[in-house]
Structure formats: C-alpha cells, structure tokens
Amino acid sequence: MIALLLMGCARNPPDPAVEPLPSAGHVAAEASALQRVPDAERGGDPVSPSAAPLPPFLGVDRSTARYTGAAACSGCHVQEYAAWSSSPHARTQDVLEGTNRQHDPSCLRCHTTGFGHPGGFGSGGDRAALVHVGCESCHGPGSDHLVTPAQGYGDLPSGFPACVACHTHDNSPEFAWDSYWALVQH
Asked: What pLDDT does 129 receive?
C-alpha cells in the first residue's frame, strides 16, 4: 500500500515499458470525471494549479466554508470517522515523511487536506488537523456543515469520479476504484 501511495507523487515518471497502459474506457472515465472537478460553480477564489485538486463534491459554498479537520466530523459521523481512521488516507503524511517528501508541494497537494486553499493545510489552517487526507479532502471544507448540518452536503458521485482529482493515471497508475474503495469505504 505504501508503494502505491508513493507512486502518486513520484518526481520521475515511471518507466513507460513497465507502466500499464490505461484502457480506452479508463481514459474516457477519467476525462469525464475531470470535467466535473473545476470549481467555478462552488464559489470561492479561483483554484491555483498548485493547490489541492478538488473532487466533484456538491452542496459546498467555498466562499463561506473553511476547513476544520476530520476530528470535527467524528461527533456526528462516528462510523465514517472510524473507517477513515483505519484507512490509508489517515496516514498519508507518514508515507511522505518516510521518504523525506513531507515538504514537497507536488506531494502535499494530494497528501494533505485543503493544501493551497483558504484555511487549508499550509494556508492558515490548523496544520495538525489537516496533515493527512481527511474527510474534507473529498467532501469539501466542512465549517458550514458544522453550523447548519444538511443532508447532501459534500455529496460525491458514486464510483470512479469521486477519486480522480488525485488518483489520475499519471499520479496513481495502479488505481482501480473497486480495490481502492474497499480500503476507505464508509
């Protein structure tokens, strides 16, 4: 598992002779999902190319919502928090530290929560609370949800499109939604 996480931020591209070529269906699914990632309709400032990519979460107004950290979600979403706590997402910074890449922005954008976004990791947010891939990495900043809990806040499309903001073919060539989802399912 650690090897798969490390592949996501490798500085050198993998050897093309060894790297599996994506299927036409995989390429089409990724392209379709990436079209849903742009942030224009979710408010907030434009997203910098160096900031964390935003999954296609719904119901979040980035002009008002700020990052709170996964622990803030644990009070209401007990089972989901427990699943996250035992998942590889809860240990992504450990992987970077093990390879001395914990300060590499090209890795931090996917291995932390909200990197480069207002109140996200490295942008004025609580670094300790946002150091791994937390709930808000996928579901969006949660402060508005804490104040006014609402059904549908941070909803994601089911399947592959929910993960492709970080798990692109270039960053995660071994990515297979079915097997990866089994590691983080909640």
From this structure: 92
Domain 2-6+23-184 has CATH 1.10.1130: yes
43, 75, 124, 144 from 127: Cα distances, Å:
24, 20, 8, 20
Whether the full predicted model's pTM is greater than 0.85, yes or no, is no
Task: Write the CA distances from 102 to 60, 97, 128, 152, integer angstroms.
Answer: 29, 5, 13, 33
Which residues of the chain fall short of a pLDDT of 50?
A: 1-6, 10-22
For residue 159, the model assigns a pLDDT of 79
Are the C-beta atoms of 37 and 54 separated by less than 8 Å?
Answer: yes
Distance from C-alpha of 171 to C-alpha of 72, rounded to nearest angstrom:
29
Q: Token pair of 181, please?
A: 């989802």
